[in-house]
Amino acid sequence: MIIRFFNFLIKPQIIIFTLVLVIAVTNYQPGTVLSGWDNLHPEFGFDFNLKRSLFAVWQEYQGLGLLGGMGHAADLIRQIFLYLISPIIPVQIIRYFFHFLMLLIGTLGLYYFLFFLIPKNHVMRKWGALSGSLFYLFNLATVQMFNVPFEPYSAHYAFLPWLLFLTIRYLRLPSLKNYMYLVFINFLAVPQSYIGTFFLVYILALSILTSQFLNKKNFGRIAVLYLTVFIINAFWLLPNVYFIYKKVNVNTQAKINRMSTQDMFLRNKKFGDLANVLLLKGFWFDNTEINSTGNLEYQLQDWLGYFKDPGVQMTGFVFPILAIFGCYYAFKEKNRNSLLLLPLLIFSFSILANNAPFFIYLAEIFYKIPLFSQVFRFPFTKLSILHIISLAVFYGLGSLWLSEKILPYRKINLLLILFIILPVFYCLPVFFGKLFYYKVRAEIPREYFELFEYFRDKPSSDRIANFPQYTFWGWTFYRFNYSGSGFIWYGLEQPVLDRAFDVWSRENENYFNEISYAIYSRNLSLFEQVLKKYQIKWVLFDGNVISFSNSRELYKDRLETLISSSSIIRPVKSFGPLSLYKVETTGENIRLSNVLPVVSPNYISGNLDMAYLETGDYINSTGSRTETDRIHFPFRALYSDTPGGLHEFDISEDEDEYVFKTIIPAEFRNQRIVIPESQPADFLEIDRNDLAKTAKKIPLIFLDGKLIAEIKENQELSFLLPNFFNGNLEVRIPKIKGYYYFDSYDSDAISTINPFTCEKPDPELNSYERIIEFEKPFLRTSSIDGIYCLNYEMNNLTHQFGYLVRVESRNISGKSLYLGVINDNSKRSDLEIYLPRKKRAIPEDFDVSYLIVPPMENYALGYILNIRNISIGRSETVNDIGRISVNPIPYKFITGLKLVKDGINPFAFENINLSVNHPHPAKYIVKFSNMPRQQSTLILSQSYDEGWKLYAVDQNIQNSDFLSFILPSKNGIEIKNHFKVNNWENGWLIDGSQLSGKKLLVLYLPQRWQIFGMTLWILLPVLLFFHRGSHRNKDTS
């Protein structure tokens, strides 16, 4: 009895379970929630989070609403599982439970996979499988993937071994049972596809495997395999493909990605050398964060200390050496199943080793493939799991072969036992609570859950603006040991305007530009107008949010002053440090308005919507067919944070003036130009040495080279434009110098300023030299794995004015220069960009970049121009910094300049009551209490997207969602005059006289792709029947 019990205990599966249980016990911290970095928390509100996954194409809760760019629907299966176990697993530990469960499932998957690959007659079969599976559990790639746990990472770890195992088994041993196992595990693996690139890794691995089976005999079952995978995944895959087709550029051009993508690629490449790849060390070992004392520390600080031990370091090289023996053993024994994984090992190693001799050239070939270069920008997170699966298989085989060679014919092979234990020793800190980064074990205060409960009975479409919003990065630090992308929207059904969503939406990004400008310029009127423009119903001020770089940049006191001074914002309730306010004057998410004026040009990025401030609601010019006023702001988006500078116009210069140039649309011939009232100070140059000595420098306006206006102070001008031929409009702004002016040549800064090492304290190289070339002095900065900074201090510049910053630079190698304009009052960067890397016709020439800094607080002073020469890894960065000048410009005058084409005055608008039913994010049903009798504008306050459709439907028609989305022609008459309103919303021109007896149906039609994908599941029983029939026929024959 005792011997039988002992034999049970030493079963490999029991050993794996016990080790994972010990990991769970030692890494669970009572009283905390596993939350931080990127996290999913459907357990905070299963009802509406499940609904979001069922209708996942339009992500209404993400700020202003957006087309989902991730596999949001893919999380549905995981959420259902969590919901089913939630009665027995407390909310506080359900995320701990899930990730520990994924560790267990993945390790068992590798065990059974390797058990299948090792010949059945091998006496040590199960122990060889155990050695490989424990390597899969205890290696540095696993540690890094779980250190800041994210559900798709963990699901990928758990199910990829099973997917590969059951695929090979099905192809080798085709049967109904094996096919059903494969279907089942493919369903369970769907949550990995929340990050779509993990699904691509799976398909890539599948392609490499199936290509080795490809012949006439196997073609049918391979086709069935791919069809099955597609059918199971189509419900999230088709919407994802739609996003790639329609909006992938939004993601790649988002400011967060523009500022970080190249850095992340270089950090991956830094760890792409041979030693780091063999040791499975990725860029996580280089990642730093600010700790509670304000100092930088490595995320894997404890692991770095552990690996200083030479014995531990040398142990790391044992695993790839044994894997090489495993490859030899597979060839020697002609183990066809194991050899199927060798191409996977070679492929993954080649991409990970993108900075190693020979492999660097293979990686360059792969990265020349456009889609490949986008998908695998960060190769370690995407390919490390596939790599360690292949490595673990060959490690297990190598353990068997070497232990047999050295200690043959032993019933208890001590060398094999050593190989089983070795990975456990190598990752010993796991048993001391070091699996998870300490900042992802957060004690979320109860006040947040009280806030969630408060909003339970509030309208689900009420939009919440959360503050502080001091940075574009979408990464928030809290007092309670949390740093990450955020979590409150998992407990709130209402949309939250957080920066975490900006990477998927230009409209969200523009909201941040506008609201942050209103706050940091302390402009109450502008702040209220932005709240109104974006239909914000609630303001949430979170006192737990902190900034480690500088607490002043949060602007908490000034934000509180703005809120308390507002006549449209009233306090509602406090939840400890959380303060909730109600905005009283914003409209509904669907509303009727008069026929609106048309404003041009359209713009992508800006911080001040002058059109909305002057006219209220308006139609963007594209797609509109109305006969109302048309207004054109030639220099509408003067502020720009894009690397190329400006959008709708050009800037040139001569010795004495800057010239802002644009083309006037032909429709504004002989129409009015309105020149805004300007203040005398806007054009005043004050002598730096004698403040009483001043000079006026007045802008001039030219059309097709002819002067048409000279500006007058304190007076608005309005007159008809002369007839023009080309419509070349120029505003010539004299260069104002004097007291509020900076020039690095005049101040001798170029010859006296000294760069300094910043952020990264131990660079391999930071150096500079002063050079004079063609009588022009400049500074050359060079860095290798370091950051070199320069600060040009401009303490006397008043924030009352806007400024044009002119920078001469030349990129020699590596990254281009980072430039930040630090507001000396808020200690925040009002502008952050990387200067563009241009191809110069003459290599010796300098690039000239023009950047605009808008006016901020009236009585504040001082800016710091922060320039950084950044190198990551062994790639040397060399940049030349030439002349830098900063001139004040009449910002409000330039942005307020407009052309007006008067149209037909709309009728007085009658008040119409709407009844709106909003059953899910992709559908609205609108009924009228009394039908409007004239043309009106129906406005839907969701981000503009051409996928939104409007139908006029008979009152008595009740179409199901399936028919409404799959067969939209059955919905009724489509109203096609769809346009953008207020540079972000959807609008349609409707004629009330044609809508008698009808209701309006608003659909986000791309939701059909998810519905269609789910409908395909009914084909799976057909495939099962096909398998049953085909195998029955084989048995009969």
Protein model, in words:
The chain is α+β, with helices and mostly antiparallel strands and 1037 residues long. The protein has five domains: 2-30 and 78-439, no CATH class; 444-580, no CATH class; 591-736, no CATH class; 742-896, Galactose-binding domain-like (Jelly Rolls); 914-1007, no CATH class. Helices cover 38% and strands 23% of the residues. Strands 16-15-17-38-20-25 form a six-stranded mixed sheet. α5 (91-117) packs parallel to α8 and α17 packs across α20. It is globular, with a radius of gyration of 32 Å. Mean pLDDT is 90; it is low at 1032-1037. Keywords: Membrane, Transmembrane, Transmembrane helix.
- Please report the number of helical segments: 31
Strand order of the main beta sheet, please? 16-15-17-38-20-25
Largest sheet: 6 strands, mixed
Silhouette = globular
DSSP strand count: 46
* Share of β-strand residues: 15-25%
Mean pLDDT, all residues: 90
Which consecutive residue ranges, at least 5 long each, have pLDDT under 50?
A: 1032-1037
Oligomer: single chain
Rg (C-alpha, Å): 32 Å
Spatial gap, N to C terminus: 48 Å
Helix content: 25-40%
Q: Which structural class matches the secondary elements?
A: alpha+beta
